[in-house]
Amino acid sequence: VTEFMDCSMEEPIFSAPPVGTSNGQAVDASQGWGAAQHFTLTDDQKIGYVDWWMITTGSPAVEEFIIEFYEDGGQPSGDPVASFLVMPVPLATGEYWSGAFQFYRYQVELPDAVDLEVGWFFIERQNNYGNPWLYWANTTATSEPSYHGSGSSVGPYAMCLGGGAGGGWLDLSAYEGDV
Fold this sequence. Notes:
Helix content is about 0%, strand content about 45%. By secondary structure, the protein is mainly beta. Strand 7 (about 90-95) and strand 8 form a beta hairpin.
């Protein structure tokens, strides 16, 4: 297993890399196929970094994803706490699902940190429906619930969250007194 199958951050505050992957699920906006993974952070920090893994039927291009964070509830609903349109570069991991379909890790440093200890991380691919197919890999590394826009989820989905200020800015809000 390559290093690209682990979380990219040194000390993730939510860790569910692709372990025991048995399936994946498409996340294409043209079909209304957004998906979300519930999380509970292990440390009281703002979320500044996100990783997720896709299984693909070809070589994916750099393309737009909407990533959103929702408050805790039965599923992601209402207005998101934060929403970002991002263009992550897919990183080939060198690992394959079912011997033929490569895993790609997507990494994003958020432009603004997200202050949410328990909630939902949602992704939806915006373009290139089926060209190639991208499936959000599932995992056995967490038992947190998952959601898919089709109404049927094969999750939980592989993802990691890292603490940080987001956007490359220094954030001292976690400290009290003289710094």
